[in-house]
Amino acid sequence: MEKVGKLLKDLAESGKTVLVSTHDPELIDKCCDYVLCIDRGKIIADE
């Protein structure tokens, strides 16, 4: 998971937009600048 997180960060830092769908809060915390939480097709958090 650390390699995936580093790859995502590297892509984002190079100017790429990265979209990740995950249930892993550690991955979200380590690599995401923006989080959109969806539950049963409805946005429940937009951070």
Strand and helix map with partners:
Blueprint (H helix, E strand, L loop, with lengths): L1 H12 L11 H7 L4 E4 L2 E5 L1
Antiparallel strand pairs: 1-2
Describe the structure.
There is one protein chain. With 47 residues, the protein is α+β, with helices and mostly antiparallel strands. The chain contains two helices and two strands. The chain has helices at residues 2-13, 25-31; strands spanning 36-39, 42-46. The chain is globular. 2% of the residues are buried.
Radius of gyration: 11 Å
* Sequence of strands across the biggest β-sheet: 1-2
* Measured distance between first and last alpha carbons: 23 Å
Helix content: 40-55%
Q: Tell me about the largest β-sheet.
A: 2 strands, antiparallel
Strand proportion, as a percent range, falls in 15-25%
Shape: globular
Q: Please, how many helices?
A: 2
Unreliable spans are none
Brief summary of the model shown:
The chain is α+β, with helices and mostly antiparallel strands. Helices cover 40% and strands 19% of the residues. The protein is globular and about 30 Å long.
Spell out the key features of this protein.
47 residues; alpha+beta; two-stranded antiparallel ribbon
